[in-house]
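Usage example:
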Amino acid sequence: MQKAKRPNQGVADEDDFVLVDRVLAGDRRAFESLVRRHERRVFRVSLAVLGNAEDAEEAMQDTFIKAYRHLGQFRRESKFTTWLTRIAINEAIQKRQGRRDFVSLDDSRGERALLMPRRTESWHADPENLYGKQELRRIVEVAIRDLPAIYREAFVLRDIEEMTAEEAADALGITVGALKSRILRARLLVREALAASLQVPPTLGKRILHAAEGVGISVAIRLMRAVRKEV
Amino acid sequence: MKKTLDCKDVLENLSSYVDGDGSAELREALEEHIAHCRRCRVIFDTTRRTLKMVLDVDPFEVPLAVSARLYARLETVLSEVS
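Running the assembly step on the lines above writes:
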C-alpha cells in the first residue's frame, strides 16, 4: 500500500533553487518567500525536538537566521528542505542541551523491547463525525506531543514531513536501522494513544470471545455461562 | 516452502508493510497471518488509519503571532547582515 499524500504537498525543489539563487544575488524578498514556504516545517521539526512552542519559536528564528548567513554554503547536493531541516534539528538539539531541565534522553532500554499493543478493538468508522475536525486534530497533536523526544522526532520527520527513512536518519544523525526501530515504536505509541479515543468499546460477549483466543473456546463458554448467571 | 509468522514477527514487520516496502513473499506471509488473526488485523488496520489521520488533520500550525514575530525579527536581522 502506498502512503496517503497530502494534496497540497510537493513544493518543487527547483523553485527552491531559483529562490536561493535570487537571495545570493542580493534579493532579500526572495528569502522571505523561502521562509514562507518552509516555516511550518521548521516550526514542526523544532517542536518535535524541543517539545514546547516557546523554545520552538526561538529555535525557528535562529534556524532561518543561520540559513540566511550560510546560504552560500548550500551545495545543492541535497534538496533545500533536507539542508534546512538539518540546520533546524541542530539548532533545536543545541537548545535542548542548554536547557537546565534537560535530562538525557537515552531510551535504549525501551528501544530494544517491542511495544505490545494493548488496545486492540476496532475503531469507529467515522471519527470525524464523532469528534469534529478541530477536536480530532487536537487529539492527534496531544498523542504526538506526548511521545518521548526520540520517537517524536522520528515520527514528525517520517510521517508528517514525509521524509524517506534515509533522509530522516541522516537529518537526525542516526543509522537507518535505528530510525526504523524508533519509527515503529512511535507509530505504535501514537496508535495506542488514538485508540483511547477512537476504539469502539466491545460488548461483554465480544470481550469474552476475544479472551477465548487465548484460553480456548470451552473455557470461554463456561465463563460466559457463569457471567450470565451473575448478571 | 511457505514462511509462517507469529504475532511478534508480524508486529516487527508492521512498518515495512504500511510503507509498502519488503519482498512480495513477506507481504504474502503477513497477509496470510492477518487474515486469520483478529488482533493483528486490527493493529494493522488502525496503524494505517493513524498515519492517514495524521496527514489529514495536518497537525501543528504556526500560530499567527509566532509567525509575525519571526518576520519582524528577520526584517531586523537581515537588514543588519546585508
